[in-house]
User: Fold this.
Amino acid sequence: MEPPTKPIPNPLKLEREMDYILDFEELDKNSLQMVGGKNASLGEMIGAGIHVPPGFAVTTDSYPSHAAIVCREYGLPAVTGTGVATSIIKTGDIIKVDGDTGVVTIVKRAN
Assistant:
């Protein structure tokens, strides 16, 4: 499938500024949920004065946006970051996705 030739409205709407990349120096034990244990530990080590090679962490905020960007570029409807879709929608269910309104409808449940 070829990417569309004209921009498509992004179905992902943000209510806050998101940081997708953070330097290790910005991290500490309170960053665990945002960057995971290894990255948070590297930030703690820097804070304790231990030499850590320069680097950065990719935050959990980046993952939903990636899916939305790929779908937008290929003209596919997308609703991301719902937090419950994988527990409600089951393998084999037929769904309808409206990327403009953010509504996902289960049309038919799998047997």
Notes: Residues 90 and 110 are 7 Å apart (CA to CA). The chain is about 30% helix and 15% strand. Residues 11-16 have pLDDT under 50 and may be disordered.
